[in-house]
Write a structure and sequence with these properties.
The protein has 98 residues and is mostly helical. It is built from 3 helices and no strands. α1 crosses α2. The longest helix is centred in the N-terminal third of the chain and has 28 residues. The structure holds zinc ion (ZN). Keywords: Membrane, Transmembrane, Transmembrane helix.
Length: 98
């Protein structure tokens, strides 16, 4: 893995963790607020934070599916049944003399 890709993945992971921690903190600190009732902005933001936390639960499942697909693709590409064309005229360096 290239260094740039590694740094990018670390930054993305840290951003995701920060968003998750701030969402939890916001939910915990504002669950007991003075709600004016209808059209409360705090309630709307609480709902958005809870939705973010619940939607992030799907990420491990998607990561597992991506890993399975990557492993399957590598195994399939290494086998002889690969769809890759291995013997082309260009790869064999055939010189066409007209
Ligand atoms: Zn409210």
């Amino acid at each position: 893995m290239k260094t740039r890709d590694r740094v990018f993945s670390i930054v993305c992971t840290l951003a995701l963790l920060v968003c998750l921690l701030f969402s939890y903190e916001y939910v915990v600190s504002n669950t007991q607020h003075d709600c004016p009732g209808k059209d409360c902005t705090v309630c709307v933001q609480l709902e958005a934070a809870v939705h973010f936390i619940s939607s992030i639960k799907i990420l491990p499942m998607l990561s597992f599916i991506a890993i399975v697909l990557c492993v399957f693709t590598r195994i399939y590409a290494a086998s002889e049944r690969s769809a890759c064309v291995r013997n082309t005229l260009v790869l064999l360096k055939v010189e066409l003399l007209n």
